[in-house]
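Hey team,

Filing this mostly as a record. A colleague (T.K.) asked me to run one chain through the structure pipeline before their review meeting, and I want the input and output archived in the tracker in case anyone asks later how it was produced. No errors, nothing strange. Just documentation.

Input sequence:
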Amino acid sequence: VALKAGQTVESMNNKLYISRPGVHVIETDGNLSFQFIQAFKAGTFLKAYKNYMFSANDENETQARLYWSALKTPATWPASNFIDINPQDGYPITGLWNDGTDLVIFKQKRIYKLSGDIFDPANPTYTVSEIPAPENATFVFIKTLRQFENTFIAFAQTGLYAYNGNGFPRLPFSIKDQITWDSITAISNPRTAMSGGEGVVYKGRYW
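Output structure:
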């Protein structure tokens, strides 16, 4: 099994789950044992949060829909376990991030957070709220989101932004002039953006 651009990997219960968006998810225990999980929602983005597996941006469904598995059971996906994240704004989900407290949900021009512990659609105890973000920010490079010192930093098409838990302000400097923007301004498909940029923290610096 070879990883390709646009595939994501997430772990739970000592197993890895590899998503091929819109097609299938592969489960492996790391010992050359692989199987397809037919019930798994094969979204572009996977993220474990509060002992549930979350999946978003399934190309066969609405791209604003967030799905989740049964508790501690990534191979089981109840049909009612989903929520549409403000589909009226017209933006697809472009990434998921577990910040240790909330599940942060990125859309191209909006950011939301899912908070709670039990995700039962029949008795919802979770909430979805919008995180303030600059109107001109376009968040499509989810792989650039990294924890750096006491915050999370992400690269957008208009610069670097720092997440403080309540907002996502732009950092007070610009790197726009150092980048050839013609090559990335056309990126609007989240699956393409998955391979369009990546960030890493190394020796006290964000790269």
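Quick notes for T.K.: The radius of gyration is 17 Å. Helices lie at 190-193.
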